[in-house]
Amino acid sequence: MATTIPTTLPPVASHYPDRPQFQGFMKPGRVEGEVQNLEVYGKIPDDIDGTFYRVMPDPQFPPFIQDDPWFNGDGNISAFRLKSGRASFKQRYVRTEKFTREREAQRALLGKYRNKYTDAVEFKVRTTANTNVVHFDGKLLALKEDAPPYAMDPDTLETLGLETFDGQLPSLTFTAHPKFDPATGEMICFGYEAKGDGTPDVCYYRVAADGKFLETVWLVAPVVAMIHDFAVTENWVVFPMIPQVCDLERLKQGGEHWQWSPETPFYVGVLPRMGAKASDVRWFRHPNCFPSHSANAYEDATGNIVFDFGLSEKNVFFWWPDAQGNSPRPETLHSQLTRLTVDPRSESLELTAANVSVLQMGNSEFYRVDDRFATKPYRHVYFDLMDPALGTDFGAIVPQLGGGYPLYNSLGHLDIETKHTEVYFPGRTHMVQEPVFIPRRGSTVEGDGYLLALVNNYATMSSELHLLDTKDFTKAQAVIMLPLRLRHGLHGNWVDAAEITK
Ligand SMILES: [Fe+2]
């Protein structure tokens, strides 16, 4: 589409800003292409046959917002194909409207994170599609919670276009964290600010494995706040709200989309998964705190909802302070894997300390499970962990880290039943990104398989994939070397080869 460039545009530099989030390991890489036969140290088991897709924000042009957050960049999708003991790599940007028009104009046109009033041009859809990539109904969906997905070809990574599910999508927004029923393949989704910026509307919908919408329920949230991740059980859906609130007037004045609100409770919306009416939603309230990513959820024998997720007492998104400008220092943040138990039939909507227990004391994030046990009782959870005692050489790597986000130096595995945690430490100059679990071929035992994660090596300033066998968690079976540096990313998923060819 032709872009009309206004005669007066915000000036942009010909290089990235001299800010931590654009320097060192975080300098945008902007690579598209492929590398066959990556170097492998160790052995990739022969029974692994599939692709690890992940996405990173990777701005193709320097922004005109000087202190732009690191995750406001264009979605660049990496695909690691593992087969017959070999690994290959492919990477391609999502051709969003933003990406395409900026490439045509040869400069940044998008303004602040989720503030269209700061853009240099008017976009129909301004998403960067940079938060998650899932495989559904034969397509990859590149996701960010401010817009519909962009569909991509799983093999070529060619962008197919904005995905409206043949016009069935009722919402202007689509979560970056859809859930999948492991038995039926049903995709359970929602969008918040679903009628536009600053609206309290939440749209909940279920999509059958063949792409047919099964039901839609429109809800109204008690505040306009971020619902980044959520959780699903056999019969319930759980919406944890981060007390970062949006105000349309602030947006119109060129301010930030989000502001931390210490006086806002941590709301937990609970809705029947099937057959609900708008009035069925119940918004439980817990004292102010910060819920991060979900691990899993299920119903116990009494019918209570058991929801496991990361929880921090402080504002993890420290770059969006409160109205007075207060925010915690990033080194004081500590997010723990936490269990919230909610009786959906309870008369009281108040949640207290009695509803909450810490499952793992470490500073952790990016929780993953064996997805065959999603929405069901489960035992094993995997995550990124920061434990300074493991021996990371901070003195050597700090000048190279770049910044703007918390980092994790190891992978953890918690056996919820035994309460035992195993730790994999990738090296003294390394940090880990989000892992994915790969089931062992032919095994139906929960947690029997492999864990795969992208690892940043600050000594070589390049990226590596570390592959663990969950039967021998503390050492890598294979380290797969990339001849390039991949900036810190957000989320990804493993797709078995059999899924692609279905
Ligand atoms: Fe996320």
From TrEMBL:
GO BP terms: carotene catabolic process
GO molecular function: carotenoid dioxygenase activity; metal ion binding
Lineage top rank: taxon: Eukaryota
InterPro entries with a match to the protein in the record: Carotenoid_Oase
Cofactor: Fe(2+)
Cofactor, how bound (note): Binds 1 Fe(2+) ion per subunit.
Binding site for Fe cation: 177, 228, 293, 491
UniProtKB keywords: Iron, Metal-binding, Oxidoreductase
Family named by the database record: Belongs to the carotenoid oxygenase family.
Matching PANTHER family: BETA-CAROTENE DIOXYGENASE, CAROTENOID 9,10(9',10')-CLEAVAGE DIOXYGENASE 1
Protein name: Carotenoid oxygenase
Species annotation: Podospora didyma
